[in-house]
Amino acid sequence: MATSSVSKGCFVFKPTSKKRKTLSAEDYFTDGSENPENSRLRFQLFQSQWQDMKEEVQMVHDDLNKKILDSLLEFIGKSVASFQSRAVGWESRMRASEIPTAALVLGVNVPDHDVTFQSLSDLLRESVSPFVASVQAKECGALQHLMKKVMQQLMGGGVALDEDDAEEQSGYQISDLPRKGFNCSLGILCDWYQNLNKKSCIKSPGKKRSSSGSDFPKKPPLVVIFKDLEAFCPQVLQDFIVICSQYIQQLPLVFVFGIATSPSTIQRMLPHSVSSLLCIELFQSLSCTQHLATVIDKLVLTSKFPFKISGKVLKVLVGIFLYHDFSVCNFIRGLQLALFEHFFGQPLSVLCCEEEEALAQVRQFSHEDVEKILQLPSIMRYVEKQEPQEQVKLLTSDDHVKVVTQNLLKDLCSYHRNFYPILRCLHLLTSSLPKFPLGKQIRELHVLCLENNVWESEEYESAMQLLRMLAKDELVAALQKCVEVLQPGMTKKLKEVVHQLKDIIAKLKMLDQLSDETISCEGEQESSSGKSLQKTDLFHLQKTLMEMRETRRNKAKTPYEVLRNHTVDYLDSLVKMHLLPPESQPLYEVFYYSSSATVRRHLNATPRTSIQTALSHPHYYLQSEALKSEGGTISKAAPDICIIYKLHLECGRLINLYDWLQAYFTVTAADGQDPDSAEGHVDEMKHARFIRAVSELEFLGFIKSTKQKTDHVARLTWGGCQT
Amino acid sequence: MPAELRQQGYSEAQLRLVSEKVPCREAQAAALLALFGEPDHYSFPSIFIYGHRAMGKSHVTLTLLRELQMPHVVVSCVECVSPGLLFEQVLGSLFDSSAVTLSRSPSLSDFVRLYRQLCAEDSAKHTRYIVLDRAEVLRDMSANLLPGFLRLQELVEDNVTVILLSEIVWDKFRPSTGCFEPLQLHFPDYSKAELQQILAQDSHPSYSAELYTFYINILLGVFYSVCKDLRELRHLAALNFPKFCEPLEKGEAEESDTHKLWRNIEPHLKKAMQTVYLREVSSFQWEEQLKQDGETQSLRGLSAYAHVELPYYSKFLLIAAYLASYNPARTDRRFFVKHHGKIRKTTFLKKHEKTSNHLLGPKPFPLDRLLAIFYSVVDSRVAPTASIFSQISSLVTLQLLTQVGHDDQLDNPKYKCTVSLDFIRAIARTVGFDILRYLYDFL
Fold first, then answer.
1. What is the per-residue pLDDT across B202-244, written as a single tens digit (0 to 9) for each?
2. Chain A interface test: which of B100, B215, B219, B284 (most A C-beta within 10 Å)
3. Which of A7, A38, A200, B313 places its Cα 20 to 30 Å from the Cα of A138?
4. How much is the pTM?
5. Cβ(A126)–Cβ(A161) under 8 Å?
6. CB–CB of B411 and A324 under 8 A?
7. Which residues form the ORC5 lid domain (chain B) (predicted)?
8. H or E element at residue A126
9. Residue A265 is part of which domain span?
């Protein structure tokens, strides 16, 4: 669109129409793939599974927050009641009117709190009061901003209160909502609130009201939520509290402080003269590690979702959580990324769905799909293990491959159904052992089982040994818990396991009657062996002790010991049967996402390393072999900035610009040309290139100008050439 | 002794009513009334009243203005986030509020012009009073506001007096450019006897006044040394009175059985001083606890929950920040380089470094030093990922670190560690790091 205007000016071009089609996520997903039909299917699968997971997460979240939110609601309800009873009584007249304040301690990850506050304000709007304002520190740098934010949200909420009066309200709203640049004061809010109450008082009798309206108490409280207390400017907060306390008689205000660190922050931020205006009660939320454990329990340790992540990916995700951010939301996002990458990168992930669908899917496979199946490493291993005839058949007949694939899919599904319950059992049994040989948390055991044959590890050995020493009541209790875990959603195999376990428990209980005899006979044996210990020299003593140990090992064990050994052996066999690592299962690539490097690269980026790589090894990103250089030398052909960067690594904290320039000339003029020829005059071209490269380096934050010496720049990074 | 309120132009009955309402403040009320003069007299242009919190400054002023029906407006300055709001409130209540139309961000001269305009239509028969509560906030508003209000009478040519109330002495107000000096009136602190007299006035309707006076005596005996705030004392009295009356309710003691009553309540009051007075527990919770009685399951106060859970690397970053803040930079080599050679403490240091760094408080340190220490204390190789850097800024938002200085935030930011030694020791213990071995002060 050109204009033929001589004068300078500003022209508004309205977009004529939306010609450009906005690409949906699906288009991006299928873009460039050779088999669009297949990708579309995978995209749909991804979406439906993510939807399921999201719902599950939401449920987990609601469950976890329920307790604390309920107690918060109770607190607010209580304070409302006290507002209403304030008018009467000696005591209430005497008492200073404090603003009820809930201090909500939520843990250090502030972005995660949003979800909690969202559900809190939703709950409040539903059951306590329509007037809920939540403010964030970054929006409230000064008192007037805070006031404006609070009033906008509170008075905006009032309109939503009675939707049936929308027409009447609308005029009211426009005139009373704070205009831009309008002076907000609580006095206005106070008038508005009293007006509103008068209105509803007049209206409520005789007029049909929406059910939501009548739920609220007569004077609904005004709840102000401070999402991140630590970040607020203390002065602003103090002023706000002082102002609010002047109106507390007319306005039933309630505060909620979201605290990330510890409640003593309140005392640090507010002097006594201000905190004495508040009536602070503490609410502590669940720790985020427990939250994570629940999320893992519901999303990862279940056969409900066909999609699985490998041990390495889980390790990366949990590592990011524990080492970096304590953010459950990030963990779930990581899971989403893995899910997406899996469906995006693995063409056979069309099979990553419910069993029946997958089986139906296999039947429709084309020749190419079958080829892809045969190329899977796990299938290749599987084929190798088969008889030669079977091998030939697999390699030649597509139909046979399809049949085999279906069988393998079924096997894999039943493997999953058994895997998780047995894993939980093993965790139950080992989590109470001293020193936690297999980890305190079930996720640690899970990672162990995913990566190797768990029974080959030393930790497993020691755990089993400890189990062989367990007292009877402990063993019975643990086994009973196992039975409880195994009960729901039983498969045929698990049913048998439950049966066996119950049998063992019964036998153990039977032992009670026998126990008296065994103790007495054991006592005899002890005394007899004690006699044989005589004073001899050290060698003999050692020998006799060895012998005694032998005899004790061989001697008849008590019935309990026999049964205990039997039990542990049985458990061991269960583990060996069901807790095989998924890598050993053919077709596991269909369900498991295992590229931990991708996840790490996406979630825990290293921008600085990338920049340094780009500068010190330009061939890595430019993909040009010519730029490759051995050792610490600098290729002449490398971009100027790389040369400059390499040279600056050799300098100390201050870099002399002239020396740097000379070094640059030397490098660029390295071979062929005679360096002396340029000595007399400075090549202006090169000079300009040098200056530009230096300013680029400054832009990247490696150097900065310094006032200490005029013709020097200061380095901002440390470390020499070896990096 | 109480000076009697006397002023022509007001009826005896009115004055008596006022003096009843201002116990122990008769002298100040009389002085103020004398300054006000008769209703239609011009008064002094500006009066500055100061005294501690809850010493009856606004109570006395407002009672006088209200009971003697003088035209007045009370504005709390802390509430007025902008001068415009202040002007609007003043004009709105002195004159017909519908006529007040101020521009968007009015200046003092706008205010004066509008005042004169409105005043011309509705001139004062009686002196108008503008009471500015928490006047110390005016100092932070535009520079001409405070001097302007001090000589408002002159500016608007109207019978108006500005009364400033503050907890701060006038010396802290005086602008460097000079201004009209207001008349100062000091409200001294209540003495113990006065507090007793005032508190004893609101006795509980179902108990005798003597009993309540006795209770107030005990209360003041415990709290007088820490708190002279009338409002707080009244609050505490109300909170603990039911407990005081408990033996009477149960019939275990008579009203005359003073010693028993004293023994019953004293420990509770002492405990209240440590908990509810400091707002460690809320008033609700305190009352609940008093009701339950017997079971000494004490409530944990706010400061009892000092534990903070942090991600693993954040803990090390915080430890590194603490070390950087409290160790002199020159000693880093000694702590973090393996073969540093022996450095003797006394010869090595300059004189001023010999004093304990913990007494001097945290010192600022640049980002590189923090990271250098971090990499040497953390036990594994850590990639310099984006989340390591973002953890530093989240520590800043959590106020465990603070950013120092505002220049050069991009290239070379400086921080200070604001956590206490106890806190960092608790953190270090969770990661198995013996922090005392790395602190220069504890060598």
1. 877 788 888 888 888 888 988 888 888 888 888 888 888 888 8
2. B284
3. B313
4. 0.82
5. no
6. no
7. 212-279
8. helix A113-127
9. 59-85+95-201+217-286
